[in-house]
């Protein structure tokens, strides 16, 4: 498709907003002036390529942009919240300086709001500004749908040392630090207790890291949250998460009800309006973006994944089930199962795995350990270990041959597959 | 190296008079080349010994500016030949300029240089037969008779309580100003600094040197001399509040001394803490006063011919360049601004304050602060950080900015080269275990690639190990299990491929078989031809 070039001249404090389909590519070039994408400064004359994005490029100074390729929409807007976002950053800076001086925790803010209010965007912007000030803040994503840091389905966090990549965001292979992720699933109301357990897991990991590193400690944490938090059912989870993560200040975007509820509950709250540029995204869009995320995990820019064939016997897969005990466990008569309990149950290796993304855990398979001892787990032990385990990575099952009892597994790198439990989540993918 | 030196030497040639812009500029260049401080220092030393006598003093001013505003590696680099350079320079210059040298000694040089170096310089200059320390010739005049010079009576130095009082008063004043000018972030910055100083003074017992430094810092922030509460200067003579703004380099916030004679000298170590007042007279017989006693820092008058303007109280360092703590000069050296101010203080007590060398306006995490507009605040993230990578727009603030940018450009280079050579060499790593993540330190991702947790493969393998390998042979067997390796037709590449296989030294294996063999200790691990790839430098955490 040939669409000719468009030029855009932005005055100071204006924003160029555009949307591009997942399967199409829009090229944007900053030809003059200075501009930033959610806090990451753009390079002049570099042709940025975007697929499946709804974005706003903002300029403090005024600038000229040039676009080419097909776009769903393109326009210049002037109602932004950038002033507030920048001030917010400087407020955090002041707290960081203070924290450093007094050798205590830096600011921990949580961003809350209903869907498509710009929570994730604000989180990115604050992180980016922080890194431009030589900070190394922690970005913590407890929205299992988003896949901002790791794949969707996880809650995760990462120390960020440089502005987020314009094109590939946090999936780019340019960061000096790694994520830590815990696998949950999709709907936070599904397994509330398990969700909070994982928030607690990530909190524990963060606290350990901070105990180890004063710089990161004073640079603070930015928490991005799921939109479900502002639903009636979600408020208690929200409050719990605020407590667990020791949040100093909650930024509520465009929701007076929630901000007053939190204020009444004694939380420190800052209210922000939704920016004029925020685009809404439907289910189809989210699904497409999810697939794009998965693809980037394996095949991101300059990345080569590796495929290998393994025997059915080599891989042991578990699945998260609610309110059910592992099959081998017999309940004494009269005892009820807890409907909310979470178990990791066995899943027979079969066709069922085809096109699944499996979560690779860090829980070693039962067998002989280094000292030659035979190690076996009870189902309860297994579940306990898997609940606590962070994610080692993801593999994709591209082929299953039930006759030969072999399957083809795509892993992110050429290393041998870890000899650990794999967990089948909700992610399916067609590697096309 | 030579290129840098020659380049700098070229720029130095412009420094034939005491030009603030040139000195500032040369200071910035020096700062940018901190990692090559010795080269810059060599260039300056060489220039000092080669230039005609009239141009020596501006070079010393430059030296002073670098020492104060950049410091760090430059202190050691200059220290090496300091005594020789100084005595050579001294021998070279005319009498009027020789007088300038005396003023130099009247500074708390002990901050920057050990006492033996200072003593060495003093000796060198005294050997050259100068009037004894304590008074100075001016404009070639004979020194006044000893009797006419007030003896260096130890003046009261501000103690910690007095400094605290000064700080509190100034802070209150600045806060009031901020109320009137809420958008002035320079003010905010000053308040920040003052608050930090206050914190230190309140919580730490400080030695006189540090107190003196803090005091001079207060001087640099204090808007007028009048702002100093008079009651804390009980015995010090009032400082004249005459202002001589210089067009080139306005010094609005620094109280100035009338053009006149240089006085106020005292020898020895620990000068900074024992500011000594002296008296002198200029050619017009107008008494001038260069007292710093009340402020705890030295004040040195300037010879008009040299500076052509009034001068400000000394802070520390060589102290030749009186205005070297002028905020506007520091602002020019952007990111080092706060640092420059702070680095004059004892690092151990103030370590915590130097975490940010950016200008940070005071904004609280409150509804009202978040919504108030502050003009041009964004510049702190843009123009105030000059070092920038043109390829990706990353900016490099901070004291190591230059080195970081260099490393960053190297990284681009390596990345681009690999891309160019079409080596798809990297793969996403497995994530770290929790204990590994907890202690992970940031490292460049290029050195970070393909280091699987569970399989200690040398990096070069990945180039040859492929999961799917094109083949033209009808049948390929695995060298290990001797079974046929499965083939499939690959539409993308228009050819037959072996699935899940590896090719090592032209032999084919099932990847699983090969991996298993690799685990067997008897087999040498590195059986592969390595190409020019450097081995993985990643240091795995245990
Ligand atoms: N200023 C802007 N101009 C154009 N697009 C924007 C702007 N700000 C945000 N967007 C886009 O709007 C969409 C929604 O924003 P964002 O993801 O930040 O919302 P969210 O509140 O995190 O949503 P969710 O509840 O789904 O997590 C995103 O595609 C984002 O890139
Ligand atoms: Mg979001
Ligand atoms: Zn770059
Ligand atoms: Zn084989």
TrEMBL record, chain A:
It is found in: Nucleus. GO terms for molecular function: ATP binding; polynucleotide 5'-hydroxyl-kinase activity. GO terms for biological process: mRNA 3'-end processing; tRNA splicing, via endonucleolytic cleavage and ligation. InterPro entries: Clp1 (IPR028606), Clp1/Grc3 (IPR045116), Clp1_C (IPR010655), Clp1_C_sf (IPR038238), Clp1_N (IPR032324), Clp1_N_sf (IPR038239), CLP1_P (IPR032319), P-loop_NTPase (IPR027417). Residues 113-300 form the Clp1 P-loop domain. One of its GO terms (cellular component) is mRNA cleavage factor complex. Keywords: ATP-binding, mRNA processing, Nucleotide-binding, Nucleus. Residues 303-431 form the Clp1 C-terminal domain. It comes from the Eukaryota. Gene3D superfamilies: Clp1, DNA binding domain, P-loop containing nucleotide triphosphate hydrolases, Pre-mRNA cleavage complex subunit Clp1, C-terminal domain. ATP binds at residues 15, 54, 116-121. The keyword ATP-binding applies. Residues 9-99 form the Clp1 N-terminal domain. Required for endonucleolytic cleavage during polyadenylation-dependent pre-mRNA 3'-end formation. Belongs to the Clp1 family. Clp1 subfamily. This is Polynucleotide 5'-hydroxyl-kinase GRC3. The lineage of its organism: Eukaryota, Fungi, Fungi incertae sedis, Chytridiomycota, Chytridiomycota incertae sedis. The gene is CLP1.
UniProtKB/TrEMBL annotation, chain B:
Coiled coil: none annotated. This is CID domain-containing protein. It comes from the Eukaryota. Residues 517-542 are annotated as: Disordered. Residues 1-129 form the CID domain. Residues 526-542 have a biased composition (Basic and acidic residues). GO terms for biological process: mRNA 3'-end processing; termination of RNA polymerase II transcription. GO terms for cellular component: cytoplasm; mRNA cleavage factor complex. Gene3D superfamilies: 1.25.40.90. One of its GO terms (molecular function) is mRNA binding.
């Amino acid at each position: 498709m040939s669409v000719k070039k468009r030029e855009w001249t932005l005055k100071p404090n204006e924003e160029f907003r555009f949307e591009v389909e997942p399967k199409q590519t829009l090229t944007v070039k900053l030809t003059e002036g200075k501009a930033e994408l959610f806090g990451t400064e753009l390079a002049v004359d570099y042709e940025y390529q975007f697929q499946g994005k709804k974005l706003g490029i903002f300029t403090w100074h005024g600038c000229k942009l040039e676009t080419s390729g097909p776009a769903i929409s393109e326009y210049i807007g002037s109602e932004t919240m950038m002033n507030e976002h920048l001030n917010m950053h400087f407020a955090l800076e002041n707290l960081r300086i203070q924290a450093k001086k007094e050798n205590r925790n830096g600011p921990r803010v949580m961003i809350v709001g209903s869907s498509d209010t710009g929570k994730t965007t604000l989180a990115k912007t604050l992180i980016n500004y922080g890194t431009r000030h030589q900070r190394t803040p922690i970005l913590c994503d407890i929205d299992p749908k988003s896949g901002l840091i790791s794949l969707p389905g996880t809650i995760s966090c990462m120390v960020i040392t440089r502005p987020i990549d314009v094109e590939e965001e946090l999936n780019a292979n340019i960061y000096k630090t790694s994520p830590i992720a815990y696998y949950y699933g999709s709907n936070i109301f599904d397994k509330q207790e398990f969700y909070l357990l994982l928030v607690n897991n990530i909190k524990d990991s963060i606290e350990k890291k901070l105990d180890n590193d004063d710089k990161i400690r004073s640079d603070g944490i930015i928490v991005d949250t799921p939109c479900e938090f502002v639903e009636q059912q979600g408020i208690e989870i929200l409050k719990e998460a605020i407590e667990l993560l020791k949040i100093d200040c909650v930024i509520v975007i465009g929701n007076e009800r929630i901000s007053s509820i939190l204020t009444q509950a004694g939380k420190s709250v800052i209210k922000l309006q939704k920016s004029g540029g925020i685009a809404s995204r439907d289910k189809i869009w989210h699904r497409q973006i999810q697939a794009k995320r998965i693809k980037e995990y394996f095949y991101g820019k300059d990345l080569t994944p590796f495929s290998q064939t393994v025997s059915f016997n080599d891989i042991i897969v578990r699945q998260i089930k609610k309110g059910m005990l592992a099959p081998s466990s017999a309940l004494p008569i009269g005892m009820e199962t807890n409907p909310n309990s979470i178990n990791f149950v066995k899943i027979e290796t079969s066709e069922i795995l085809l096109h699944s993304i499996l979560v690779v855990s860090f829980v070693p398979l039962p067998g002989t350990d280094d000292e030659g001892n035979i190690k076996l787990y009870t189902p309860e032990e297994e579940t306990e270990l898997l609940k606590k385990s962070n994610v080692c990575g993801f593999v994709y099952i591209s082929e299953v041959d039930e006759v030969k009892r072999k399957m083809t597994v795509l892993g992110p790198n050429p290393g041998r597959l870890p000899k650990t439990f794999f967990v089948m989540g909700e992610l399916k993918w067609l590697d096309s | 190296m030579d290129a840098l030196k020659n380049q700098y030497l070229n720029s130095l040639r412009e420094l034939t008079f005491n030009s603030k812009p040139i000195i500032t500029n040369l200071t910035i260049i020096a700062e940018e080349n901190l990692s090559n401080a010795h080269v810059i220092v060599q260039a300056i030393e060489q220039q000092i010994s080669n230039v005609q006598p009239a141009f020596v003093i501006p070079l010393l001013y430059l030296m002073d500016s670098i020492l104060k505003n950049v410091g760090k590696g430059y202190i050691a680099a200059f220290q090496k030949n300091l005594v020789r350079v100084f005595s050579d320079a001294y021998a070279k210059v005319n009498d009027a300029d020789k007088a300038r040298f005396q003023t130099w000694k009247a500074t708390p040089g002990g901050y920057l240089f050990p006492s033996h170096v200072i003593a060495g310089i003093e000796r060198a200059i005294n050997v050259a037969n100068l009037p004894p320390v304590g008074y100075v010739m001016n404009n070639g005049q004979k020194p006044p008779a000893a009797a006419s010079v007030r003896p260096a009576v130890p003046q009261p130095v501000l103690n910690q309580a007095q400094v605290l009082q000064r700080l509190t008063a100034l802070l209150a004043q600045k806060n009031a100003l901020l109320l009137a000018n809420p958008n002035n972030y320079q003010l905010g910055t000053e308040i920040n600094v003052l608050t930090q100083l206050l914190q230190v003074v309140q919580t730490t017992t400080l030695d006189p040197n540090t107190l003196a430094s803090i005091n001079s810092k207060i001087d640099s922030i204090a808007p007028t001399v009048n702002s100093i509460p008079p009651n804390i200067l009980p015995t010090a003579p009032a400082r004249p509040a005459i202002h001589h703004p210089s067009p080139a380099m306005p010094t609005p916030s620094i109280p100035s001394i009338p053009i006149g004679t240089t006085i106020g000298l005292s020898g020895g170590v620990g000068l900074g803490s024992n500011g000594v007042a002296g008296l002198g007279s200029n050619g017009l017989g107008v008494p001038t006063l260069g007292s710093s006693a009340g402020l705890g820092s030295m004040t040195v008058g300037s010879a008009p011919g040299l500076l052509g303007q009034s001068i400000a109280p000394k802070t520390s360092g060589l102290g030749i360049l009186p205005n070297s703590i002028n905020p506007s000069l520091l602002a020019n050296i952007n990111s080092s601004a706060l640092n420059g101010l702070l680095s004059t203080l004892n690092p151990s007590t103030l370590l915590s304050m130097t975490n940010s060398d950016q200008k940070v306006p005071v904004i609280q995490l409150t509804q009202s602060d978040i919504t108030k507009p502050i003009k041009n605040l964004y510049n702190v993230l843009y123009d105030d950080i000059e070092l920038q990578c043109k390829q990706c727009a990353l900016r490099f603030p901070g004291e190591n900015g230059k080195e970081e940018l260099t490393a960053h450009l190297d990284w681009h280079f390596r990345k681009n080269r690999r891309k160019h050579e079409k080596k798809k060499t990297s793969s996403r790593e497995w994530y770290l275990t929790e204990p590994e993540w907890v202690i992970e330190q940031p490292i460049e991702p290029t050195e970070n690639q393909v280091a699987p947790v569970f399989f200690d493969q040398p990096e070069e393998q990945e180039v040859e190990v492929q999961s799917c390998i094109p083949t033209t042979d009808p049948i390929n067997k695995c060298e290990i299990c001797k079974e046929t390796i499965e083939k499939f037709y690959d539409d993308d590449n228009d050819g037959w491929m072996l699935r899940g296989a590896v090719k090592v030294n032209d032999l084919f294996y099932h990847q699983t078989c090969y991996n298993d063999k690799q685990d067997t200790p008897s087999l040498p691990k590195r059986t592969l031809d390595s190409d020019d790839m450097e081995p993985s430098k990643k240091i795995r955490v245990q």
